Amino acid sequence: MTDNHGINDHNHSCPHEGTFPTMSQFQLGMGTSGTVGLYVTSIMVCLVNATMFAILIRKFLREVPERQVPDLCWVTSLFTAISFFTVLMIYMPRSTEFLLGAYRVYEAMVIGRFVELNLLWHGGEKELMRGLGENPRMRFNLPPCCCCLLCLKNSLVTRDRVKMVRLVVGQMVYIQLFVLFLQLVFQFNDIHDGPLSLSNP
């Protein structure tokens, strides 16, 4: 009787298939020692990354041109942000989907800043075009678009196309914000198909 009662309790405490566990279910599954170890490790990794990021900011302020500092801070903050989002997902597993959506918005902002930073390193669009030489060509149909858009396989690099790339990258933030908005709307109305997995792509 005792064994059967324990098994039933364990089954009842498990999350339903296709759902994220609650904090108590997560702690029960990991055990006390595993939960404490995971919590402490995740916080330590986050603190180490935050400390290294603070050191980088101090170095940027002393050695890097002032114009490049904001973009460099955005780009180098990626590792600290990843560890911070990981801590939140470990402590609040039910918020995993929202946190992943928020991270995609942040990542899009970092990519946009990285593009701007590369232009600053080359001295701007004019200096970039001058450094590429006359009639520079580049392959724009990179994977996963390598099998289509063949007209962009060996295209001439012009200032207009550089501006177009900047424009497209800049729209990623708004696209991810819109996706996150739809995700919240669907979630509040119980319209979802569960977490992504190999059986649920």
Textual characterization of the structure:
- With 201 residues, the protein is an all-alpha fold.
- 69% of the residues lie in helices and 2% in strands.
- The chain has helices at residues 2-13, 23-30, 32-63, 69-76, 78-91, 96-121, 125-132, 159-188; strands spanning 137-138, 155-156.
- A two-stranded antiparallel sheet has the order 1-2.
- Helix 4 runs antiparallel to helix 6.
- The longest helix has 32 residues, at 32-63.
- The model is unreliable at 1-12 (pLDDT under 50).
Content of β-strand: under 5%
Low-confidence stretches: 1-12
Determine the N-to-C terminus distance: 41 Å
| Net shape | globular
Largest sheet: 2 strands, antiparallel
- Mean pLDDT, to the nearest integer, reads 78
Helix fraction, binned, reads: 55-70%
H and E order: HHHHHHHEEH
Regarding quaternary structure, what we see is: single chain
Rg to the nearest angstrom? 23 Å
Number of helices: 8
Summarize this, please?
The protein has 201 residues and is mostly helical. It has helices at residues 2-13, 23-30, 32-63, 69-76, 78-91, 96-121, 125-132, 159-188, and strands at 137-138, 155-156.
Which short descriptors sum up this protein?
201 residues; two-stranded antiparallel ribbon; disordered N terminus; mainly alpha
Secondary structure elements and pairings:
Layout lengths: L1 H12 L9 H8 L1 H32 L5 H8 L1 H14 L4 H26 L3 H8 L4 E2 L16 E2 L2 H30 L13
Antiparallel strand pairs: 1-2
